[in-house]
Amino acid sequence: MAHEKLSPRQKMIGMMYLVLTAMLALNVSKDAVEAFKKVDNGLQLTVKNYALKNNLIYAEFDRAAAENPAKAGGYRNTAYEVKQRADELVNYLHDIKVAIIREAEGDNSPALRGSLIITDSIRKIDENNIPSQILLGAKHDGLAYGLKSLINEYRTFLIDVLDGKNLAAEASIRTSLNTDDGKDAAGDPAIWEVHTFYHLPLVGCIVLLSKIQVDVRNAETEVLNYLYSQIDASSFKFNKLNAIVIPKSNYVTVGSNYEATIFISAADTTAQPVITVENQQLEVDESGKGLYSVRATSIGQRSYKGTIAMKSPDGSIKNYNFSETYNVGEPNVICSPTAMNVMYSGIENPLDVSVPGVDPQNIKVRVVNGTYSAKKVRNPRGEYFRGNWAVKPEGVGKNVQVIVSTDVGGRVTNYAPYEFRVKPIPPPEARFGNKSSGSISRSVAVAQQGVFAVLPDFDFDLIYEITGFTILYSDRMGDIERSSNSSALTSDQKELLNRLTRGKNLIIKDIKARGPDGVKELASIVLKID
After folding, report:
1. Per-residue pLDDT tens digits for 27-43
2. I need a labelling partner for 273 at 20 to 30 A (CA). Which of 62, 191, 325, 530 fits?
C-alpha cells in the first residue's frame, strides 16, 4: 500500500506549521501568532477531509461484507474497530482544546459554540500559562499524560493490525505518532509531554493538537487501505478443494423425485469439472454445478456415490470422491415456526408449511385465533423473513391453531392441527453508547449522537424507534433537564454532556419508543462517568 499523497494545500499547511513553530521559539509578536489561526483552520479542514474519505472506505467495507460475509466480514469488523479507536482519540484531542479555551476565556467564549470550536474567534491567543496548566498541571490531572497513553495504545493497535505485512505504512505510523522524549530549550532531556506542550501560547497549542488529529486520521487511512487490500489478497487460491453435495431434501416420499446439487467448492470458469454419479456423467453448468435427479420408487434409505474430476494448474487430473444418503418415506406434513416455537402477539410470525411431495400451490392453511396471509413477510429493514406464510395472533391468552390440508388431483387430505403458544413481545431496552447501566468514559459519552432501543436475545429482527427522552444533569446549582423529541441528541443536551465530569451520574429518563406493537415507555438509563 502506498502512502497517502499530500495535496499542494496540505503540503503548504505542513510548511506553515513548521515555520510558525520556529516563530514561537523566537517569541515573536502577537500579530505573528495570529497567523496560527489560519494554520488551524487548514488543519481542521484536513481532518474533515480525511473523515469524509475514510467514511467512503467504510462504505466499501460494508458493501464487500454484504456481498461476501465470509471473505470480507472479518476485515470489516477490524476496520470498524480502527474507526472506534481513531474517533476516541480525535474526540479526546477535541475535548482538550475545548478545556483550554474554556479555562482561558470562560464558558461564554465566542470561540465555543456548543462543542464546536471557532478558531478565528479565540481572543487570548498568546496566553501561555493555561495550556501548560491544563496539559501538565495537577489541577486537571495533566491531560497530556493521558493523551500520550492513548496515542501509544492507538499506535500499537494499528501496528498490530498491520502485523508486519506493510512496513512502509508501519514506518509512517511510527513517525507521525511518535511520543519519544526529547530536549527542552536548554538542550536538557525532557519527557514528551513537557517537550511538546510546555509554555506554548494558547493558539499554538490548539494548532499542535489539531496536527495530532490530522496524524490520527492519516494513520487511520493507512490501515484502512491496507485492510481493504487484504480482502482479495485472502481469497481462496485453489490450494484445497472439496466436493459439495446439497440435496433439496434428505427425505422424500414415494412417487416424488430426490434431487441434489453437486459441485466443487472452488470454481474456475476456464476449466469445468467432470461430475460422474453411479457411472452416469452429469451435465455441468457454467458455474461448475451438476444436477442429479432420480425417482424414489420404494420406502427406505438410499445411497449413491460419485467423483468430481478437476484439472489442476499443472495439468494433472485430480479426482474428488463423494457419497451421500437419503431416506424415502410415506407422505406426511411438516409445519414449524421459522424462528421460534411460539408466536408473538402484535406482529406477523413467519411460518413454513410444507408437505413432502406436494406442490405448495396445493396446500391450504386455516388459522384459529389469528389471521394469516400466504406470502413472504418483509421486516422493517426491507429484508424477507424465511417462510411462505405469516400468522398474526389475536392476542395473548389464546393459543393459535394452524390447520393444514392438501388437495392433490381432487383428493383432499386433512392433517392434525398444530398448536402454538402466544406471548407478548418483550419490552425493548434503551441504550446510550451501547450501554443501559454501569459506567462510561466521558469521551465516549460526548461522542454519542443519540439514544437507541434494542431487543437483546429476541428471535425477530424488530426495530423500535426512540421518539423522545430527557437528560437529567445535576450539579451544585441544582437539577437541569433537557428533552429531545426524537432519538437524536439536541444541541442543548450535547452541551449538558460536555459539562459531565468523572464521578458524575448521567441519567436519561422518560424514554419512549415506537414499535410494531405501539409506543412503550422504557426503563431509565443511569451511567457513571469515569
Report:
1. 545 666 677 788 888 88
2. 325
